[in-house]
DNA sequence: AGGCAACTTGACCGCAGGGTCAACTTCCAT
DNA sequence: ATGGAAGTTGACCCTGCGGTCAAGTTGCCT
């Protein structure tokens, strides 16, 4: 790869990182090229697809954030505290970091590195949930698949309230967590948990893609 | 108004009602015209704006649905049961009726009749919530303004899961309701309720408009 | 029946986004 | 220093949306 192409790729990566974090992963590619100061043709030439660019620019960032909160959650002595911490932090990411929110709430099958990060995260979620359930504080009918229900809820509230009430998602999360303790469980849930395939399908359209 | 215009208006109203209920209020106007079998120019000629069409076609439908569940909710002996019924039915509407979902989750300032329906509904919500809170079953820190938090949550889950798990919203609502009982309340909520202005702003962008 | 107002039509405009490619420019190995 | 490969550019195409309007058609009153 020639030196000037290398430089352009770097400029594009930088611009993409900025815009992805400011406005989410669906930001127009031409706008990224504009901010980088190159033609959009060059962007297509160097990266080919949006997903390839995402994979290069967003993966490490998302992995860092997601792994960090997962580790901290598991470090709590109290299993419930760890669980609640994890939920809150994940929701905070959704509210404050459009790029990570889209990683969590979208599907980018072409971004291979990103997909492995998602897989790793799912496994950790399972551990956090299982630990809290076994401790007896998390209601036993809550599955790790139910996490996407919370994320679906929060994604929309965070988006809808971003301009007018940027912190109100915390209130909603508090309500939700109160409903997840063992003592809060009243009667059998009306429907069973999502299957892994359903989790995949639903979590792939949490943030608006169409 | 000439007879043929009258007929066309009727065809357009019918097509609009169908498409609004199938696909929501943002369905392309040209598609409505196509289904009605007239030129889109005629649609613009007869109705002028999307909101005018909505006002004529959707208002009565939405009013009927919303008033019905509100009345039934207030008819429950038990205040909590009425409240829970209302939440569930509202969420069911969001999940099954795209048109009503968009009425609840959007803003159509040009649709005057529709606006009065919304105002009336808000007042009834207040009564349902107040009744359940005074009965002592609904946690006292829950405000009628918090209803939009639930609706925001459900709007997105219903949309995201519509294809793959069309009933899972019931599970999420069950979790949420369990968190709203007085006994579930653990500690002060991290942020206060939305102001009326914030409710207006947030509830205006529950469903995707941009 | 005729004529005019009312109505309809579809081509057309503007916008925004994704994506392609021939012609031009720049780098760098020889 | 120079020629050819590598890279860049921006005009161009396509799609789909909202919206307008001159020209043509139709209903209805006289």
TrEMBL record, chains A, B:
Transmembrane segments: none
Gene3D superfamilies: Tetracycline Repressor, domain 2
Residues annotated to bind DNA: 28-47
Domain HTH tetR-type: 6-65
UniProt keywords, alphabetically: DNA-binding, Transcription, Transcription regulation
InterPro entries recorded: Homeodomain-like_sf (IPR009057), HTH-type_TetR-like_transc_reg (IPR050109), HTH_TetR (IPR001647), Tet_transcr_reg_TetR-rel_C_sf (IPR036271), TetR_SbtR-like_C (IPR049445)
Listed PANTHER family: HTH-TYPE TRANSCRIPTIONAL REGULATOR BETI (PTHR30055:SF234), HTH-TYPE TRANSCRIPTIONAL REGULATOR RUTR (PTHR30055)
Name this polypeptide is given: TetR/AcrR family transcriptional regulator
